[in-house]
């Protein structure tokens, strides 16, 4: 098993919060790799060790839950093609969206064992007359990179800062119950992201309906983690601080 070593602080956090110690990690990894070898349709030969460990950590080392998420992840391309088609990061259209800074993981965490803060700026999409599905696709692409490369993200989780400044009605009306259901099917059932808090900034008038739809598909514990805020600031270290 070839994965990055953890710092002492992250190793302690992993033991306390996601039931991970060196012995269970190796044991669960080996069982998961053996299971994958029995399911060639999941293309197990191209799944890296680090990617598998991210799924184990996101499932808190519950093997059955982890297997279910992996199966769903590799069948999502047909269920949600708008999120999984045309994912070439060098494609001009994708480049245009990336340069807008729609979905920005901040460089520094608040501490060595803190969640990764991610800033989402939906209003920037209006500059290119984009669709809601564009920002969702970019978000999923970057989240998958974080799952592979960021141990704070996989162990400590993600704290989302969603800035709704300049989010017009054209974007809000795209947030239908049908689309919300599909998005959360992907987010909760296939990816292994531990969302610790969702901070909503600058919510426009008329956003109440969109937020109500948003909450319809969330588990109860995640509903309690949605917080409306008036202000945040970004420090010189690239760390968001609540005001």
TrEMBL record:
Report the gene name. Answer: LOC114253345
What's the protein name? Answer: Retinol-binding protein pinta-like isoform X2
Q: Which SUPFAM superfamilies match?
A: CRAL/TRIO domain, CRAL/TRIO N-terminal domain
Name a single GO cellular component. membrane
Organism of provenance:
Bombyx mandarina (Wild silk moth)
Q: Which GO terms describe its molecular function?
A: phosphatidylinositol bisphosphate binding
Domain CRAL-TRIO, by residue range, is: 91-243
């Amino acid at each position: 098993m070839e994965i990055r070593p953890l710092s002492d602080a992250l190793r302690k956090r992993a033991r306390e919060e996601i039931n991970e110690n060196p012995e269970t990690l190796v044991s669960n990894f080996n069982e998961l790799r053996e299971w994958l070898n029995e399911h060639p349709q999941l293309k197990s030969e191209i799944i890296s060790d680090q990617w598998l460990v991210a799924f184990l950590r996101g499932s808190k080392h519950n093997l059955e839950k982890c297997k279910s998420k992996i199966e769903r992840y590799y069948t999502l391309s047909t269920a949600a093609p708008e999120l999984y088609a045309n994912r070439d990061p060098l494609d001009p259209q994708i480049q245009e969206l990336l340069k807008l800074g729609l979905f920005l993981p901040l460089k520094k965490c608040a501490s060595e064992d803190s969640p990764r803060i991610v800033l989402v700026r939906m209003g920037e999409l209006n500059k290119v007359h984009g669709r809601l599905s564009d920002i969702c696709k970019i978000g999923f692409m970057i989240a998958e990179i974080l799952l592979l490369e960021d141990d704070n993200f996989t162990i400590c989780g993600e704290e989302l800062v969603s800035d709704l400044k300049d989010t017009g009605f054209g974007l809000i009306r795209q947030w239908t119950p049908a689309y919300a259901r599909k998005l959360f099917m992907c987010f909760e059932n296939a990816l292994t992201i531990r969302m610790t808090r969702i901070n909503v900034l600058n919510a426009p008038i008329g956003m109440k309906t969109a937020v109500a739809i948003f909450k319809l598909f969330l588990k109860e514990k995640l509903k309690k983690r949605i917080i409306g805020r008036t202000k945040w600031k970004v420090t010189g270290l690239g760390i968001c601080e609540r005001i």
